[in-house]
Amino acid sequence: MNILSVTQQHLSKIGDPTYTDFIISGAGGALRYLEEEGSEEILNEEHQIQKNFFTTNYGFVSFTINSSGIHMEFVDENLDIVYTYTRP
Question: What is the residue extent of each domain of the chain?
């Protein structure tokens, strides 16, 4: 089963804000994939990972890093910002 088969995602460890966030952006130009049924439950229960953002849009992630933290913007194929997140 392929759990992480989409083009843009933000995942994080449940209950541990100090743990590394997972940012997935792009699929190497592949076709769009749909989220598989049950994948969120597997992430939550077996891996203690929560899905903060998920989309099948093509696009990229822009990062701004400074002394305040890391700010990210997920941008879709139309150059619209579809999700933002700041981690101190």
Answer: 8-87
